[in-house]
Specification:
With about 140 residues, this protein is an alpha+beta fold. The chain is built from four helices and five strands, in the order βααββααββ. A five-stranded antiparallel β-sheet has the order 1-2-3-5-4, covered by helices on one side. It is globular, with a radius of gyration of 14 Å.
Length: about 140
């Protein structure tokens, strides 16, 4: 792993459209730092882009937290996207390909889940949502 100033943990606010770009750029830096393959970099950057946009559009803004982690001598990147928006009333429906509560394509949550090794969604109506994803270096 290359040493870069990002460190092992950090946070980026997601409050405006340009923050979605900033989060994507940070994930690119972190996946390069971890020496992920180009395919794994692309998967993690794509998932982060989708979840950042969801945080902004559906959650009214929030933050992305990152953590470089190690388990069983393997390095990984864990990202958590948290908002204090309306929450998701029907999680199963929200995870169904093609379903959207807005004008999107309905691939954000379900597509992101397929791109990562670990996916966790916590939500409460009226309190917000936190989606945590992890990808391990292959």
């Amino acid at each position: 792993m290359n040493a870069e100033p990002e460190g092992l943990t950090g946070t980026i606010a997601i409050q405006v459209e340009s923050d979605v770009v900033t989060s994507r750029q940070m994930v690119r830096k972190l996946t390069r730092q971890l020496m992920f393959s180009l395919v794994d970099q692309t998967k993690m950057i794509t998932a982060a882009s989708e979840l950042s946009r969801n945080t902004l559009v559906y959650g009214g803004g929030g933050e992305m937290r990152w953590e470089i982690i190690e388990r069983d001598s393997k390095w990984g990147l864990r990202l958590a996207f948290e908002d204090h928006g309306p929450g998701i009333p029907d999680v199963q429906l929200a995870l169904t390909d093609g379903w959207t509560s807005g004008k999107g394509m309905g691939m954000g949550l379900s597509g992101s889940r397929r791109l990562v090794n670990e996916f966790e969604l916590r939500t409460a109506v009226g309190e917000g949502t936190c989606v945590t994803i992890t990808r391990w270096k292959s």
